[in-house]
Specification:
By secondary structure, the chain is of the alpha/beta class. It has two domains: 168 residues, 2-Layer Sandwich (VC0802-like), CATH 3.30.2130.30; 209 residues, Rossmann fold (3-Layer(aba) Sandwich). It is built from 13 helices and 15 strands. The strands form two sheets. Strands 1, 2, 3, 4, 5, 6, 7, 8 and 9 form a nine-stranded mixed β-sheet that branches. The structure holds adenosine-5'-triphosphate and magnesium ion (MG). The site of adenosine-5'-triphosphate (ATP) has 20 residues, from helix 5 and strand 11.
């Protein structure tokens, strides 16, 4: 029996004239993401997208898992196909639902007929298939008001489909329709969640990570690539830029007043990330900052960091509590990786008493004690690039 995935489009349907573009982008990302699992035919018609495996040996559990993480999909169903003949449909439904009907208590059948040439009306189809299933599974009751299982029969142009439930999709809008932005990614809990949230709004991601060997270890970098791998299950391919940050941090430590260490370091991060972002056609930066979480995330500190770049900075977690952020990180499977204890460059040389209300003029005065421009240039020239998917 042939199984397919029927995809219901999400917010896409609201986008009017852009709809075609959204749909095309979504189809492309479905194809690209399923490519790893096997060969599929992906086709849009009558407001759904049908994903059909080309060969029989394809792991549909894996395909369903993959589809459940693609943005732009509001809901989907796993269905079996049948020829558009009522007898064939009944038989296919009986066979397909056998396992499920051994545990379900009650059911009803709903039918949708978008192919109006099919000789039976929707109520007639529901009655025929319902009668057949009731006879074949005498232990399962028909209950039209509160059934355990709703069996749906859809008669579409290409074939008839039978399924027993709609699965909620990842929501959001297709990655790539919202432009491209660079996520400043650490090994912590917050930034992978921020990346996920912006990808959900259609943004394609590039990642920038600052590493300070030997103060930060190779394991710390591997942790970041692991995190990005998890994020890429949702966002698709990510190019990661690892920036050498040691020299720059040592210079700040040696030449600037301790209380400005963090803020100057963060200004470096924004300027360097912006430079990399611009070279990669990104139009914005993304960080995992949340207001008031630490000294460098007060309004004053954020104002001083933002001054170091001109691109818009998206901070999707700005109004969220840590608990809410953790909830998402568990959902996207990054939490367990994030809590592994490897030092981030932000935690080396941290001052005991950072400025929580820095004054921009003073920050810049401090920053002028080092050759900011030259250090940025060197760092950008020495980035390492890695593709994550
Ligand atoms: P996270 O959990 O994401 O590490 P955090 O709460 O630890 O965040 P900070 O360490 O102050 O907060 O960092 C704030 C933001 O700065 C991070 O969310 C991330 O976007 C960026 N950032 C911090 N460290 C790095 C790094 N090593 N490389 C790139 N970006 C970083
Ligand atoms: Mg951190």
């Amino acid at each position: 029996m042939k199984e397919v995935i029927l995809i219901k489009l999400g917010e896409i349907v609201l986008k009017g004239l852009n709809r075609k573009n959204f749909e095309d982008t979504l189809i492309k990302s479905i194809k690209r993401r399923l490519h790893k699992i096997g060969a599929f035919k992906v086709k849009a018609s009558q407001s759904i997208i049908t994903v059909a495996p080309v060969f029989d040996d394809i792991d549909m559990d894996e395909a369903v898992e993959c589809v459940s993480k693609i943005f732009g999909i509001a809901a989907f169903s796993r269905a079996c196909t049948a020829e558009k003949d009522i007898e064939k449909i009944k038989e296919a439904a009986g066979e397909y639902l056998e396992e499920q009907f051994s545990v379900t208590g009650s059911f009803k059948v709903e039918a949708k007929r978008s192919d109006k040439k099919f000789p039976l009306t929707s109520p007639e189809i529901a009655r025929e298939v319902g009668g057949y299933l009731a006879e074949r599974f005498p232990d399962v009751r028909v209950d039209v008001h509160n059934p355990d299982t709703v069996v749906t029969v859809e008669i579409r142009d290409g074939a008839a489909y039978i399924h027993s439930g709609v699965i909620r999709g990842a929501g959001g809008i297709p990655v790539g329709t919202g432009g491209k932005a660079a996520i400043l990614i650490s090994g912590g809990i917050d930034s992978p969640v921020a990346a996920y949230m912006m990808a959900k709004r259609g943004i394609e991601l590039t990642a920038v990570h600052f590493a300070s060997p030997p103060y930060t270890s190779e394991r710390a970098e591997e942790k970041v690539t692991e995190l990005l791998k998890r994020v890429s299950a949702y966002s698709g391919r990510i190019t990661m830029y690892t920036v050498p940050f040691t020299k720059l941090q040592e210079q700040i430590r040696d030449k600037c007043h301790e209380e400005y260490f963090t803020i100057i370091m963060r200004r470096f991060m924004m300027t360097i990330a912006e430079e990399i972002a611009r070279k990669n056609d990104c139009q914005a930066l993304i960080t995992g900052e949340s207001l008031g979480q630490v000294a460098s995330q007060t309004i004053g500190a954020i104002a001083c960091t933002d001054d170091a770049c001109t691109m818009p900075v998206f901070r999707p977690l700005i109004g969220m509590d840590k608990e809410e952020i953790i909830e998402i990180s568990r959902k996207i499977d990054t939490f367990e990786i994030s809590i592994q204890p490897y030092e981030d460059c932000c935690t080396v040389f941290t001052p005991k008493h950072p400025r929580t209300r820095p004054v921009l003029k003073n920050v810049i005065e401090e920053q002028n004690k080092i050759d900011f421009g030259q250090l940025v240039k060197e760092a950008v020239e020495n980035v390492r690039i890695m593709e994550i998917s």
